[in-house]
């Protein structure tokens, strides 16, 4: 989700973001009903085929899926030990299919398009006081600021290590909170200065 | 024209601007002053991000107190740290953010985004994550995101502070080439030679208002 979009001219890129997100949600529901590992393996193969249809570079796809595979192996080991290897395989395949679909959407959809689709989808909730524009901005800001906050934590930790405070959580948390609040204050001004009006 | 009439402002008990009256008609106006001298508050007054406790600020006749939204359409604002003003994860999405707020149609947004990316050499980075850009490129993106809205005035609040000399010069070159009125807050005195007018702030007041040579000399005198 962190701005990983890869620009390509493909049918999957051209699909409406709302359709892709709906497909993901429906797939999640459908996968619960399937407990045959052979069927799930076939589905996973088809999903991986979609990456080729989307003309995404294999290296990028592997980079996105690699951390998930370690988690999948862990799930498999736990299930195999406690239940059976078939149950482990079913769980891992369901999980990998869903994550692959989500990665596929992330790599083929601009964040702004996803956010716009979400905003449209939430519009019917206006009558119960939900403001879709505020929610969509909140999501795009979260996506934008995660890597920034990771860098900030790294920077503060390095500064505190240089002062010999290697194990102090407070020494990292306090400056992090202060800096984040300052950043949020300027960001609010910046958003306002660019004419943002959620109503 | 931007006009300030008897403007005073304080944060809590601390006065930051005292009875400032001036009008801006020149195309290139620089503002210098020590930390805490009131220059950043002055900058924020110009597009209504700060409303003065006393006095009025008007932009082409629009009062920042009552016409905030209209004023912000006229006055763009570039902040010191681009990381705190880039809203969307990728370059072209962030540039489009302000245009969506202007309720422009998709074709016009695409046209303007492509135009500004091309003009400032960011086309090859258009789908890149803003987080992965260099400091200079991020500031360039922040400037593009403001310029694409085509404001009549642009306030730059210390945009060169975090940059190396090459990027500082590049930003000043961009400012020099703008068709808009630019108000440029800075500590980099060597970059202000080409400006039409320099305001020197000290203790919340304008203590010098002149062309660059004499104004900068007065500022240096104040700092000694």
From TrEMBL, chain A:
Membrane topology field: Multi-pass membrane protein
Main location group: membrane
InterPro entries: ABC/ECF_trnsptr_transmembrane (IPR003339)
Gene Ontology CC terms: plasma membrane
Species of the source: Skermanella aerolata
Keywords: Membrane, Transmembrane, Transmembrane helix
Top-level taxon in the UniProt lineage: Bacteria
CDD domains tied to this protein: EcfT
TM stretches of this protein: 12-32, 39-58, 64-83, 95-115, 135-153
A family per Pfam: CbiQ
Protein name: Cobalt ABC transporter
Phylogenetic placement of the source organism: Bacteria, Pseudomonadati, Pseudomonadota, Alphaproteobacteria, Rhodospirillales
Keyword Signal: no
Entry's family note: Belongs to the CbiQ family.
Cell compartments where the protein resides: Membrane
This protein's record includes keyword Transmembrane: yes
TrEMBL record, chain B:
GO molecular function: ATP binding; ATP hydrolysis activity; ATPase-coupled transmembrane transporter activity
Keywords: ATP-binding, Nucleotide-binding, Transport
Organism lineage: Bacteria, Pseudomonadati, Pseudomonadota, Alphaproteobacteria, Rhodospirillales
Domain ABC transporter: 2-222
Name of the protein: Putative ABC transporter ATP-binding protein
Family: Belongs to the ABC transporter superfamily.
Entry-linked InterPro entries: AAA+_ATPase, ABC_transporter-like_ATP-bd, ABC_transporter-like_CS, ABC_transpr_CbiO/EcfA_su, ECF_ABC_transporter_ATP-bd, P-loop_NTPase
Superkingdom of origin: Bacteria
UniProt organism field: Skermanella aerolata
GO CC, alphabetical: ATP-binding cassette (ABC) transporter complex
CDD domains (UniProt xref): ABC_cobalt_CbiO_domain1
